[in-house]
Amino acid sequence: MIFLDNVSKSYSTGSPALNGVTLSIGRGEFVFIVGDSGSGKSTLIKLLLRELTSTSGSVYVMGNDLAKLKHRQIPRFRRNLGVVFQDFRLLNDRNVYENVAFAQRIVETPVSEIRRNVPAILATVGLAGKYKAKTKQLSGGEQQRVALARALVNNPSILLADEPTGNLDPNNSWEIMKLLEEINESGTTVVVVTHNREIVNAMQKRVITMKKGVIISDEEKGGYIDED
Ligand SMILES: Nc1ncnc2c1ncn2[C@@H]1O[C@H](COP(=O)(O)OP(=O)(O)OP(=O)(O)O)[C@@H](O)[C@H]1O
Predict the structure, then answer these.
(1) From the CA of 54, how far away is ligand 1's center (Å)?
(2) CA of 212 to the centre of ligand 1 (A)
(3) What is the ipTM of this complex?
(4) Which pLDDT value is given to residue 225?
(5) Domain ranges of the chain
């Protein structure tokens, strides 16, 4: 599903953000990626989304060698990826329904299907009753659930979450993690970058720990490694 073969990524300044990373994530896995600030986690996510390309080595996602994807092929490739970020990135002048429906319009889903799919996914994330609310009227946890619904409505094979609980209190963080777990149980591959040590330790999933651009540990049912 995801395979990195000796991948390095350098920006124009500084030491490499990723330095010889080899990594394989299978279909249906749930994986945490942890590590200090600056260890290369977001760079890894951006490579998977094809927002960046590697400096050397190969990145494969769902059978695509991302270096070989042509620009016009990128939108179609990204349809198979759902993504959520720490800062939600919602359309704040639109209501909840519109935020989720927007993702379906982009991929030209027929209106009749949008009218079916959006309420269904909002019910999955527990927001069925809030579909008319403007997103800025929602709590942080609710906003992240809207973002999750938007990421999922096109039924992606892989969900990438970059610090999804970074702006949430512990209760809301747990709610989002439980949803991610449910989504994974329904077959979606889930990759979560996080600094949330309590959640990582409690959930007992695969944990990949990065440091200065390299993977320093990769454990099934792992925990958060305390450095220093
Ligand atoms: N656009 C950029 N230009 C130059 N250097 C960058 C750029 N983006 C990231 N870096 C550098 O690459 C390294 C890895 O950054 P990255 O954002 O991948 O780390 P991270 O593990 O996601 O950190 P955090 O936990 O703080 O989000 C850091 O040294 C960072 O300064």
Answers:
(1) 14
(2) 10
(3) 0.96
(4) 78
(5) 26-52+79-217
